[in-house]
Amino acid sequence: MNYHIRNAVREDMEQVLNLITELAIFEKEPNAVEITAADLQAKGFGSSPEFHCFVAESDQKIIGIALVYTRFSTWKGTVLHLEDLIVSEHVRGHGIGSALLDQVILYGDNQGVKRVCWEVIDWNTPAIEFYEHKGARVMRDWDVVQLDEQGMKNYISKLK
Questions:
Q1: pLDDT one-digit tens code per residue, 116-159
Q2: How far apart are CA 20 and CA 16, in angstroms?
């Protein structure tokens, strides 16, 4: 399969959103995606982009993405967070995920970050095996903690 990896541009965001939605369906959360292509365009491009995105493209169709942003670790300093690495299900097994991850790691090294980190859902055994094969340490003794928008409102209401 012929494909190439490149930096995403504003016009890619509709196709990027399609892959985000495909991932949500795969992770059994089909209605969880609230963001729009316009949101992605506004937040990812302009004077202060909040993320950087790489795309894998074949025949003018985006078949994979890796979306990253920097954050600060009190232990390490600046780190790169890989929010999502998505390869469309129908093209998995062609090295696209590896090529995207390679680009993320090279980008992080070029940015001088001290670590690249991400989460993987615990039942996605192929992804866990892929990351471990690449040398990543999957920390199974940590749990992800979140407050969604309603959870934040509930929390704040209890402060009064």
A1: 999 999 999 999 999 999 999 999 999 889 999 999 999 999 99
A2: 6
Kindly list the structural domains of the chain, giving each domain's residue range(s) and its CATH number in brackets, ordered by start: 4-118 (3.40.630.30)
Q: Which residues contact 22 (CB under 8 A, 6 or more apart)?
A: 86, 88, 89
Q: Which amino acid is at 115?
A: R
How many angstroms separate the CA atoms of 7 and 4, rounded? Answer: 10
User: Mean pLDDT throughout 10-26?
Assistant: 98
**Exposed, middle or buried: residue 66 (CB in 10 Å: 0-12, 13-18, 19+)?**
buried
Q: pTM of the entire structure?
A: 0.93
Write out the E strands in the chain: 4-7, 52-58, 61-73, 77-87, 116-117
